[in-house]
Each structure stands twice: as structure tokens, then as C-alpha cells.
Amino acid sequence: ALALSVAERGVAHVQDHLSMDEASEWQRLWYVQLLTMLGRMDEALEIMLALNEEIPDDDDVLGWLGIVAAEHGDKEAAERFSTLLRDLGHPHLLGWNSFYRAGIAAHLGRSDEAMGLLREAFSRGYEWNIGLHASLELKPLRNHLEFEAILHPDG
């Protein structure tokens, strides 16, 4: 309940103080995460589609487009964005494309596939970090035994 209250306050603050036309990529991505927390998928999708027009082939944008599509119930679009992430040819992704693909799979309810993609992300250079505990991308994996073992490697 506290997280939703904070998300609501964050959305209200953005609406009062920031124009999406002037917002940076990261400001829009954070705003989309707040909207996603609140289940406001139509608004999140509109912002992400506009951002994708400006920055095509960006792993963060494609990843969140896939997650929002999955949450919106559009399985075909979510899978299309996962495929685009898989096929990205940027040399310095360091596993981020696989991380986002894991998030898309998780939001589609495919936890075993998501765990395989998360392992792939680590093998490609994505580094374990404390942010995994609060990751919205991987939220559906909470309570999955293998994911919990990654979060708490010492038991």
C-alpha cells in the first residue's frame, strides 16, 4: 500500500511539474514505471510508443514496451518486442537485452523461460545488483525459488 501511495504521489508530481515533450528518456521511463505500478497501462503504452518513435532500437525502450504490452494483455506485441531485443546488434548491451526479455517472459507468466533468460543476461555481462530486489521488470518472479536464490545467494 505504501509503494502505491508513493507511486501516486510521483505521478501527481510529474503531471504538475513535467511535460512529456520536454522530459528525457530516463524521466519518461521512470514515469512509465510509476504508471505500471498503478496499473495505468494505456498511458504507459502511449508514452513508450512515442519514445520508441524517437529512439528506435533502444534496449530500455524496447524492454519496457514489451513489459507494458504483456501487462496490457497483448501477448503478440510483447513477444515481438522480445524478438527485437534478442536481435539487437549493439556491441555493448552487457546482457541488458536478455534482462528485459526475462522481464517480458515473467510478465507473460513464463517463469521458467524468464529464469533462463536471466541466467543468459548474467552470462552476457549483466551484473547482480541490489536493485534486483525491487525490480519491477522481474516482479512476477518474486517467490520463485531460483529467483529467490539469486536475490539471497547466502541463504
Percentage beta strand: under 5%
For the termini, the CA-CA separation is: 28 Å
Strand-and-helix sequence, N→C?
Answer: HHHHHHHH
Mean pLDDT: 94
What ranges have pLDDT less than 50 throughout 5 or more consecutive residues? none
Please, how many helices?
8
Main beta sheet: none
Please name the defining characteristics of this protein.
single chain, 155 residues, mainly alpha, 8 helices, 65% helix, 0% strand
Describe the structure in your own words.
The chain is mainly α and 155 residues long. Helix 4 packs antiparallel against helix 5 and helix 4 packs parallel to helix 6. The chain is globular and about 45 Å long. The relative contact order is 0.10. The mean pLDDT is 94.
Task: Write the SSE topology.
Blueprint: H1 2-17, H2 25-37, H3 41-54, H4 59-72, H5 75-86, H6 96-107, H7 111-123, H8 145-151
Helix pairs in contact: 1-2, 2-3, 2-4, 3-4, 4-5, 4-6, 5-6, 6-7
How would you briefly describe this protein structure?
The protein is 65% helix and 0% strand.
